[in-house]
Design brief:
Blueprint: H1 3-11, E1 17-20, E2 26-29, E3 32-33, H2 36-39, H3 42-54, E4 60-61, H4 62-69, H5 75-89, E5 102-105, E6 108-111, E7 116-118, H6 119-133, H7 138-151, H8 164-188, H9 193-206, H10 211-223, H11 227-245, H12 251-261
Length: 263
C-alpha cells in the first residue's frame, strides 16, 4: 500500500465500527450512530470508553479495570456492563457465538485490533508517518500532519474530563497535537506564513506557554514583512511566561527578538 493510500485509509476508514474520541464521543456501527438509548446504562458506555483508551496496552484483568473505574462496585456491575457492550455493538450476534469486538481470555478483556477504527489512534499513526518522512520527503510529512490535525476536534473524551483514568491519555494527546501544530508550522513558515501563524495560534490555545509556537509566529510575521506583529508576539510570549512561571523567554527566542529589532 502506498503512503497516500495509507493516509487515506486512516482518514476515511471503511471499518464497521468507528469510534470518535476527540472533542466528542460517538460510535458509528455499520453506518448507524449509537445514542444513549442504545448504550442503556452509563456504566456500559464508561466501560467501553475505558477499553478504547486501553486497547494499545493489550488485555487487562477484570480486577484492574474495576479498580480504575468502580473501586466500590462488585463483579455484577462489571458483568452487566460488559453484557451491555456486547449487546450494543453486536445486537444480532447469535447465542453461544463469541463476541467480535470485545475479546476475552479468562478474566482478561481487550478490544479487537481489527474492524475498529479510533480517531485518536489514526491521528497518532498519521503523526508517525509525518515524523518518518520529515527532512526526507517534506511534502508527504506535511500531508500526513495536516490530515492528522484534521482528526483533532478537541479534548479526549470530554465528558470524562474529570475522571482520573482519562487524565494521562488526554495530556499525552495534547502534547502530541501541540508538537504537530508547531512542526507543521515550522515546515510551512517560509512558503505559507499565514497558515504557520494560524497553526501556532492553535497550539497556543491549548498551551499558552508553548514557546516554540511564539518563535515560529515571529519568524512567519517577518516573512510577511510585518515587523510590528513579530515584536508584539515576543512581548506576548515574555508576558505569558513571566505571569505563569516568573521566567524570561529562552536565549534562542531573545536572540530572534534582538535580530528583529535591528531590521
Amino acid at each position: 500500500m502506498s503512503i497516500k493510500d495509507q493516509i487515506e485509509s486512516l482518514v476515511n476508514p471503511d471499518s464497521p465500527l468507528r469510534v470518535y474520541t476527540l472533542g466528542t464521543f460517538k460510535v458509528i456501527r455499520d453506518g448507524h450512530e449509537l445514542n444513549d438509548k442504545d448504550w442503556g446504562r452509563d456504566k456500559t458506555l464508561q466501560l467501553f470508553q475505558f477499553l478504547v483508551l486501553s486497547r494499545s496496552r493489550g488485555a487487562l484483568h477484570k480486577e484492574q479495570i474495576m479498580d480504575r473505574l468502580w473501586e466500590d462496585d462488585d463483579d455484577q456491575t462489571f458483568k452487566v456492563a460488559m453484557h451491555g457492550i456486547n449487546k450494543t455493538l453486536e445486537p444480532e450476534r447469535p447465542a453461544r457465538v463469541e463476541p467480535k469486538y470485545v475479546l476475552r481470555s479468562g478474566l482478561s478483556y481487550k478490544l479487537n485490533e481489527k474492524d475498529i477504527w479510533v480517531d485518536a489512534e489514526a491521528m497518532e499513526q498519521l503523526i508517525i508517518i509525518g515524523n518518518q518522512h520529515l527532512n526526507d520527503d517534506d511534502a508527504t510529512a506535511i500531508e500526513a500532519y495536516r490530515n492528522s490535525l484534521s482528526l483533532y476536534q478537541g479534548n479526549y473524551i470530554p465528558a470524562r474530563i474529570y475522571e482520573d483514568w482519562t487524565t494521562a491519555e488526554r495530556e499525552r494527546i495534547q502534547i502530541l497535537v501541540i508538537n504537530t501544530y508547531t512542526q507543521l508550522a515550522e515546515l510551512l513558515k517560509s512558503e505559507h506564513p499565514q497558515e504557520a501563524i494560524r497553526l501556532c495560534q492553535e497550539a497556543l490555545s491549548i498551551d499558552s506557554v508553548w514557546e516554540d509556537a511564539y518563535r515560529i509566529q515571529m519568524e512567519a510575521y517577518i516573512k510577511l514583512g510585518n515587523r510590528p506583529l513579530a515584536l508584539k508576539t515576543y512581548l506576548k510570549c515574555k508576558a505569558t511566561l513571566n505571569e505563569e512561571f516568573g521566567i524570561d523567554p529562552l536565549p534562542i527566542t531573545q536572540k530572534l527578538h534582538s535580530e528583529i529589532t535591528k531590521i
